Amino acid sequence: MKNMRLIMLLIIMAITIIIPFGCNSLQDDTKNNMMPDDFDFSLTYGTYGKQKIDTFNHIVVKDLIEDGTIEASISLAKLEKQEIYEEMMKIDILAATDFSENKECEIEPPSFSTWTVQMNGESKSFSYTSYCEYPEDVRNLIKLEEYIHDIVSSKEEYKALPEAKGYYE
Length: 169
Known about the structure:
Layout: H1 2-33, E1 40-45, E2 51-54, E3 59-63, E4 69-73, H2 78-90, E5 112-119, E6 122-129, H3 136-153, H4 156-159
Antiparallel strand pairs: 1-2, 1-5, 2-3, 3-4, 5-6
Helix pairs in contact: 2-3
């Protein structure tokens, strides 16, 4: 009976020690996924870099190909920005650095991307173009571009813009 009380006491002590540490760990993870108040980004991308999504100025530029470009005032909802922020954190966008120029290829028509990302008082800008062999950082960024483009192009304001005419050769 005395051994049983000792075992129960040890279990209770272990639980009271482990649970608070586990909760703090969960809080830290949640805190890390919280979008900073100063989070914004600008992405210029696509063929000839004619498309743009700019949350600093709430502007989207759509490439209409034969008809040039059109600019629209389109804002992302806070939840949409939060989701984009979380995707950026998954690929550690501020640490992305593998833009090896020796892997770039000259492709016609050219495609390139330029990013500016601001968060937590820090701002980082970088760009890349077409590659023969895409480095992992660039592959991740291209997937992120597509993810962001899908969010923006699903918005009613974007759908109301004219359709692109023609194509690039």
